[in-house]
């Protein structure tokens, strides 16, 4: 049992830097905030459409049990919530009151997404992203590359205290590892489901042709219409899809092949978007949790040294 506990702790809570987590915070929150945020206009149109919920999500049902409908489900409430969420995203991005900001930003995203999904528009592509945003609130993602870290250092300097190093902690790796495992589970279960429920019919080419043609026609994707007519190519793509999804968990154990599988994943999702119109941008964005930014530290240090070394910059002792 002791060895099991030691292995568990060494896997989830190794002594590591906060740099990787901080970089993921900046990249994911920044792109979510400025590119992939739910559209406010869409939220308001659904509210004012009068169609009513088709499949109300658990979060929305729970909130309605606390907040009266005539207060919560109003354009004013959603307008305020949207902008509070956006401001929280900005403060999370720069690392100001990071844990609180990240919690508000994640919760706001959860509510906005759950509201859209309550009108029978449920998709799974945002699930992992929403989970990661909430994990930031329970992790030290703001201990590096943040306003919080700058304020802490200045406070310690004003008190003539020795700065406490945040270079290596035991709580910075588990959010990244959890998302990696959830990624592996998502892909593997999808591939396994194709085999269990579809069997050999899923890789006969005709099944993929049908999926591609139906989506390509509805989304007006000329490339998809062409691809749906290439039976042999669809057989190869079907086999490649199964292999990619079933083999993705390998990245958890063999880091050397990780770049190749991630590149394959980017091509996989980009191909789906170009031929079928289904975007998995959130999945592609979250691939950053697999990147070891710490290995780029020497490059960052060179850039920092070149900036500091320019004329006009002074280094205070």
Describe this protein with a few key phrases.
about 325 residues; mainly alpha; 2 domains; about 65% helix; disordered C terminus
How are the SSEs ordered, and which strands pair?
Blueprint: H1 2-12, H2 19-34, H3 40-49, H4 58-64, H5 69-72, H6 75-94, H7 98-117, H8 127-136, H9 147-158, H10 174-198, H11 206-219, H12 222-227, H13 231-247, H14 258-276, H15 281-286, H16 297-308
Helix pairs in contact: 2-6, 3-6, 6-7, 7-8, 8-10, 10-13
Question: What report would you give on this structure?
Answer:
With 317 residues, this protein is mainly alpha-helical. It folds into 2 domains: 12-157 and 168-172, no CATH class; 182-292, no CATH class. It has helices spanning 2-12, 19-34, 40-49, 58-64, 69-72, 75-94, 98-117, 127-136, 147-158, 174-198, 206-219, 222-227, 231-247, 258-276, 281-286, 297-308. Helix 2 runs antiparallel to helix 6 and helix 8 runs antiparallel to helix 10 (174-198). It is globular. The termini are far apart. Mean pLDDT is 89; it is low at 312-317.
């Amino acid at each position: 049992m002791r060895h099991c506990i030691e292995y568990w702790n060494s896997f989830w809570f190794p002594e590591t830097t906060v740099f990787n987590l901080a970089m993921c915070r900046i990249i994911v929150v920044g792109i979510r905030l400025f590119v992939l945020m739910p559209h406010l206009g869409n939220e308001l149109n659904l509210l004012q459409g009068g169609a009513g919920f088709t499949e109300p999500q658990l979060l929305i049902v729970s909130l309605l049990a606390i907040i009266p409908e005539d207060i919560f489900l109003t354009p004013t409430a959603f307008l305020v919530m949207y902008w509070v969420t956006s401001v929280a995203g900005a403060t999370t991005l720069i690392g100001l009151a990071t844990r609180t900001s990240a919690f508000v930003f994640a919760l706001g995203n959860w509510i906005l997404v759950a509201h859209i999904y309550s009108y029978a528009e449920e998709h799974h592509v945002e699930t992992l992203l929403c989970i990661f945003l909430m994990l930031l609130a329970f992790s030290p993602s703001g201990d590096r590359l943040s306003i919080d870290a700058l304020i802490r250092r200045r406070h310690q300097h004003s008190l003539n205290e020795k700065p406490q190093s945040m270079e290596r902690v035991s709580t910075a790796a588990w959010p990244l590892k959890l998302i990696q495992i959830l990624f592996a589970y998502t892909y593997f279960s999808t591939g396994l489901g194709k085999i269990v429920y579809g069997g050999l019919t899923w890789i006969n080419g005709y099944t993929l042709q049908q999926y591609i043609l139906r989506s390509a026609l509805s989304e007006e994707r000329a490339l998809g219409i062409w691809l749906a007519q290439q039976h042999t190519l669809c057989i190869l793509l079907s086999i490649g899809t199964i292999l990619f999804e079933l083999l993705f968990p390998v990245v958890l154990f063999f880091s050397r092949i990780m770049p190749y599988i991630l590149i394959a994943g980017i091509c996989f999702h980009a191909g789906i978007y170009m031929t079928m119109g289904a975007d998995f941008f959130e999945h592609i964005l979250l691939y950053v949790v697999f990147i070891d930014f710490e290995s780029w530290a020497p490059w960052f240090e060179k850039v920092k040294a070149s900036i500091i070394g320019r004329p006009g910059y002074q280094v205070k002792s």
